[in-house]
Amino acid sequence: MSGDLDTGAEITWCTGCGNFGILAAVKKAVKKLEENGISREDIVISTGIGCHGKIFDYLDLSGIYSLHGREVASAEGIKLGNPDLKIIAFGGDGDCYGEGLAHLLFAAKRNIDITVIVHNNGAYALTTGQASPTSPKGFKGPATPGGSVEPPIEPLGLLLSAGASFVSRGYAGKVKHLSDLIVQAVEHPGFAHIDVLQPSVVFTDYYEEYNELVDELEDTRSTKFEAMELAQESDRLPIGVFYREERPTYNEELLGERNPVKDRLSDEKRLKEIRAFLDV
Amino acid sequence: MGSKDDVKAMDEELFTVIIGGQAGQGVKKAGEALSKFFLEKGRYVFEMDDYQSLIRGGHNFASVSSSTEEIFSHHMRADVVVNLDKTSYEMHKKNLTPDGLNFYNSDEIENGEGIGLPLTSMSKEFQRPQLIMGVTGIAVLAAVVGENKDSLVSLVNSVYPRGKEDNTAFSKLVYDEVLDKVGSTLDLKEGDCRNRMFPGNHVIALGAASAGLDIYFAYPMTPASSILHFYASHGDKLGVTAVHPESEIAVANMAIGATIAGARSMVGTSGGGFALMAEAFSLAGMVESPVLFVLSSRPGPATGVPTYTEQGDLGFALHQGHGDFPRIVASPGDMEEAFYLTADMLSLLWKYQTPGIILTEKHLSESSMCMDVDPSKVRTVEPRMHEEDTEYKRYLSTEDGVSPLKFPPSKEAIKWNGEEHDEYGITTSRSEEVAAMHDKRHKKEEVILEELKDRHTVNVYGSGENVIFTYGSTTLSVREALRCSGIEAKVVQPIYLRPLPTWELKKHVEGRSIVVEQSVAQQFSTLLEDKIGLEPTSVIKRYDGRPFDPMDLAGKIKEAIR
């Protein structure tokens, strides 16, 4: 793996895209995680399909460029295969809050120890700017020329209801802050979610609005209810960790101490067990 | 399906019991008890459970056939029929052999044909009359074949550990009543079978475990669910983790994820669930992930008839997933084959890094029969792994298209990519790279074909100028039909369906040929026509959700070769 995590692949995001901020924050976070004792060799990523997914090609980390909406399921499978690995799933708002929403909510519910980063730009950018699950009502795109008639969903409240044990929001325009969030999320023992406000310079150029409204939280809320209230705020856009709790993870509850790829039965033991079934 | 009475079973030791009743009356358990009774007599047994998609009421029955010779199917003409309720009586009085005994509940039916047992009034004194009804099956069988009461009691105790006092007491009442009314009139010879019997799904599960399966992912769907239940109960011992996530889409994508970590993964479902897995199946082809998919068919389309059997998913299995990529599809013809084939498939898929399918049907998944397998005979092949001193490329171009594997943690990034990619796994749309990767994956198709040419790919049973082509669990019906009727014919069953072993099958295209399958559109026959130019003299098909009755099938075969 290259020192700066570059792969040498040509970056095809639009100049000024919020995705650059996210990429920079991830690279910074990986370095910090290494200082904290988590090797980049143990970090495995998954991505969905959309502009966000291109980050797969730009990060010299192991992983899978999965299907649209399935990056969370892929990430969970990797974790269950080898629970010693640290998994980061990258999704888009159309991808993770639309096509693949069920996987996200269930991953939060079961508290599997993975991190999900959603590049939330409020539009289907790669498919030319259709309204996404987080586009505001009235959003104009090629599939809603008269303005979208649907109100947006608010993802953080949804995740809190589902049982996410680490719920946060970051901003692609504040790389240092986002990078700190990523470090905390990866180190959190359980399901960690980061919704990232990510302006698209072509379809949703909200930089000015975000720069004005984004407000760094000083404290994590102590109850889910308070965290939900915070997520509803619209006169300012709080960023930081909204809610955090520790509860047993799915991988620990399901597997106990066993690591499926490291603690395989010996051939001899396996044969003995199978014979026991066949012969009794 | 008209019944043909012109063919009689020539196996004089064949003995069949059918027990029918409502869901909740313990019919399945009764079938298990009957099977155990026969097994203890050293007889070969085949048990088929027919049940509906409901929890209480309706009509369920079990048909348990046994013989002193190896037996491949249940029969629908029984020596003893035990009807726990009126519906069962109406349905099964036609299922008797000419000398068969029909037992019915005389509290529900007045002056019925056969022997009336006042089951409702006899069970009244017990706390939960419905729950002990099922024991009637072995009590009747024990009495009519002259088994002593002590043996009956010990069998009841072993099959019904819960509530054994009431079951034992009730079985004795029934036994005495039957002896009183008909006595011991039937003869049951002991055999020398020492095998145990297993349901197909357990055999599939054990086969995969013997090849080193690490994780099984599944969403409940009949008739595949019992694989999930088996691993959930016994996975700890076998080193297999059972995972039941939110949907079949999650199942398939998680299974692919697990292979990236190096875990051997299998999933199981039926047609509807497999449809939801279509995109992930294609992803497995693209990223070259060796996930084994078990597709246990039931009648479709859509939800179809959830608890019955059909072979309407053959074309679906052969063509699952969008785009061009190699896959292996195989279908076991009996329980022993289900064991070895599942194990073999897991190894083959890891050798060639591509998805594959075990195609089976409810009739094999959920029926039980005697079998004898040796897990030490399972051939496991280690996948090709990366040698540490060279640069790592996930999709390294090689002569046979198979790139070495590596699992995290790794100094070099291991990039599995569902978009078209270069050798490193970085996305590309460059024309020469797109074509080169297609060529790489396609090459595997050729080497898989070469490997299969060296393997046993087609089962041939019997001989004769008449050739019967069949596959999957229908093979059981055909073999039993021939065994019992004495009709001479050669049975040809391809174990692999894609790639189809045309080189072997073509050897048998001669004389009169019959295709037997369970698909209204005769998908198997069409496949053989397309691939080996077979023009069958006749196609015998059944598509009402029920497996063939062997003697009924024998009648149809006789007619076809007349």
Q: Describe it for me?
A:
The complex is a heterodimer of chains A (280) and B (562). By secondary structure, chain A is of the alpha/beta class. Chain A has one domain: Thiamin diphosphate (ThDP)-binding fold, Pyr/PP domains (Rossmann fold), CATH 3.40.50. Chain A is built from eleven helices and ten strands. In chain A, strand 9, helix 9 (224-232) and strand 10 (237-244) form a beta-alpha-beta unit. Chain A is globular and about 70 Å long. The termini of chain A are far apart. The relative contact order of chain A is 0.14. The mean pLDDT of chain A is 96. In chain B, the strands form three sheets. Chain B has an eight-stranded mixed beta sheet, with helices on both faces. In chain B, strand 4, helix 2 and strand 5 (96-105) form a beta-alpha-beta unit. In chain B, helix 1 (27-40) runs parallel beside helix 5 (136-144), helix 5 (136-144) packs parallel to helix 7 and helix 6 runs antiparallel to helix 7. The two termini of chain B are 20 Å apart. Chains A and B meet through strand 2, helix 3, helix 5 and helix 11 of A and helix 8, helix 9, helix 10, helix 12 and strand 15 of B.
Computed Rg of chain A: 20 Å
Give the low-confidence spans of chain B: none
Instruction: Please state the oligomeric state of the protein chains shown.
Output: heterodimer
The shape of chain B is globular
Helix content percent band of chain B: 25-40%
Q: Report the count of strand segments of chain A.
A: 10
Which pair of protein chains has the largest interface, and what are the residue counts?
A-B, 54 and 56 residues
The CATH topology of the largest domain in chain B: Rossmann fold
Terminal Cα separation of chain B, in Å?
20 Å
Q: Kindly report how far apart the N and C termini of chain A lie.
A: 52 Å
What would you give as the CATH superfamily of the largest domain in chain B?
Thiamin diphosphate (ThDP)-binding fold, Pyr/PP domains
Q: CATH homologous superfamily name of chain A?
A: Thiamin diphosphate (ThDP)-binding fold, Pyr/PP domains
Q: For the record, what CATH class of chain A applies?
A: Alpha Beta
Q: Would you identify the regions of chain A where 5 or more consecutive residues have pLDDT less than 50?
A: none
| Structural class estimated from helices and strands of chain B | alpha/beta
Secondary-structure content class of chain A: alpha/beta
